[in-house]
Amino acid sequence: MDSKFAALIIFISISYHQACGQKLNCSFSIGHQSVYSCFLKVDNPNGLANFTEITGTHLPEMTNEDVTKVAYGSLKNTTTPPPIVCETFQNPTEVFITETVIKSIKDSFRYCSKLKKIEIYLNNLFQRDSMEIDEDAFVGNPELRLISAWNNRIKSLHENVFRNQNKLMYLWLNNNEISDLGDDIFLPLHNLLQLDLWSNQIKVMKRNWFRNLTKLEDLWIAVNQIESLPPNAFNNMVNLKMLALSANELKELPNNIFSSLKSLKIIYLEHNKLKEIHSESFGYLLNLTHIYLTNNQIDAIDERLINNTGVTYIDMRNNTCANVNITDNSTSRDVMRNALQKCFENYKLLYPDETTTIDTTTDPTFSPGCIDGNLDDRVCKLEDWNQELEDKIDILTENKQHMQEDIENLLKENEDLREDLENQVLLIADVQDENQKLQTTTEELQKELEELKNQFLIWTTRPCACL
Ligand SMILES: *[C@@H]1O[C@H](CO)[C@@H](O)[C@H](O)[C@H]1NC(C)=O
Ligand SMILES: *[C@@H]1O[C@H](CO)[C@@H](O)[C@H](O)[C@H]1NC(C)=O
Ligand SMILES: *[C@@H]1O[C@H](CO)[C@@H](O)[C@H](O)[C@H]1NC(C)=O
Ligand SMILES: *[C@@H]1O[C@H](CO)[C@@H](O)[C@H](O)[C@H]1NC(C)=O
Ligand SMILES: *[C@@H]1O[C@H](CO)[C@@H](O)[C@H](O)[C@H]1NC(C)=O
Ligand SMILES: *[C@@H]1O[C@H](CO)[C@@H](O)[C@H](O)[C@H]1NC(C)=O
Ligand SMILES: *[C@@H]1O[C@H](CO)[C@@H](O)[C@H](O)[C@H]1NC(C)=O
Ligand SMILES: *[C@@H]1O[C@H](CO)[C@@H](O)[C@H](O)[C@H]1NC(C)=O
Ligand SMILES: *[C@@H]1O[C@H](CO)[C@@H](O)[C@H](O)[C@H]1NC(C)=O
């Protein structure tokens, strides 16, 4: 073929590509701990998102397979991270998109099935729109351990969005504009250690949100507009160490609301509208050492709060009955008792009979078990026991079933064996018969042989002349 003609074809195909296909450009580098990363640049002045290829030169001996991290530099006018990135590099474990103009996450991460970290924070700096996260945004990422999505103007999330994230350990959604989330949204996240909802616009805390988060250690829901806590909201969170409820609109704390948080060390309740502190809200929490109650309107505190918990630090500045923060490491709590005297006295005046009422909170073995009932906690406990018994009965019934089946099988085997045995006996009888017959035959044959021998003798003793 004419070489000029061939060159023309190549030239045409290149310019065609440049005219229609938009490009992403990677600069590849090896960083900390030999992480091979692609630093992406986007050049699309028209804001389109139909990318056709990713350019860039790999470091020697490296390929697309080796890319374990993708970071977006500037996305210019592109507002959705394009799926072509995960179609091209399928092995990244980390993706970073921060300080860009993205406002939606669709199938952007679908094909990066090995992702452990998605960091998409601080994307609210250059745009006023809220970020939309698709229901299927994380469906292809079952290995995720961290989703960091703070400062994005997220207003809401689909109730199913985390359905494949049962390995997730850290979920940071702070500094968004979330006002409502479905009741069951966090149920799949049973390995979660930290949940951060700090500074959003949540008015109503849902009953089920934390029901399945039995491994959670830190929960931030401070700086929202929550007016009340649903009963049993924090049950099951036996590993929770820190609970931040500061800067909400809480007026009171329900009985036993914190009492199953046996690992709780620190609770932040500053800047709320609390007026009284009942010991029943806390129960018997020996691990609880720090209670922050600054800037409430507290006028009365049940003394059992300091008798039944491990509190060594209580911050009561800017309250009605006291304006102090106290550190008291002594087991007698004398310093605390003196400093909060007025609060305790007020409480006794308001509730003179309190100590004579049945107090489940002083029973260290008491732990309310129901997860989502509105029932009294003791009824819940009974229900749990019932459930346990029912479970045990189920197991026993199943065992019995198995044993019966085993017995039936054994009986059947026995039957078969007996039949076999009988057959064997019959067989032996047959063989014996046969044997008998053979013996008779042998005897007869022997007789015949004997006769033949005799005849032979007669034959051989005859004179030769006869032949
Ligand atoms: C990208 O989209 C624009 C506008 O819809 C279109 O003109 C162009 O052909 C598309 N390019 C490709 C490669 O699909
Ligand atoms: C990609 O980026 C590198 C480094 O910034 C640059 O040298 C190269 O020309 C770019 N390639 C394309 C096709 O834009
Ligand atoms: C893309 O961004 C530039 C500024 O960065 C702006 O002038 C231009 O109008 C934008 N184009 C579209 C299609 O949004
Ligand atoms: C709740 O957590 C358990 C593990 O503790 C898990 O098996 C179950 O699937 C979770 N529930 C939901 C609705 O995801
Ligand atoms: C304190 O927390 C630990 C786990 O962090 C737990 O094992 C222990 O039982 C708790 N103490 C009490 C008194 O509940
Ligand atoms: C708290 O403990 C102190 C010291 O043991 C005791 O004098 C006081 O009566 C207790 N208060 C309540 C309300 O049980
Ligand atoms: C107590 O309240 C006053 C007046 O609102 C405020 O200026 C001060 O900072 C508060 N103190 C604390 C420790 O928050
Ligand atoms: C109270 O706490 C603040 C900050 O934690 C500290 O600066 C101050 O000295 C404390 N006051 C008392 C009386 O303990
Ligand atoms: C109380 O204990 C804590 C830690 O256990 C310590 O940091 C603090 O200095 C102690 N305070 C006093 C007054 O002994």
UniProtKB/TrEMBL annotation:
Residues 1-21 form the signal peptide. This is Uncharacterized protein. The keyword Repeat applies. SMART domains: LRR_TYP. It comes from Chironomus riparius. Keywords: Coiled coil, Leucine-rich repeat, Repeat, Signal. The keyword Ribonucleoprotein does not apply. Pfam families: LRR_8. It comes from the Eukaryota. PROSITE patterns: LRR. Residues 386-462 form a coiled coil.
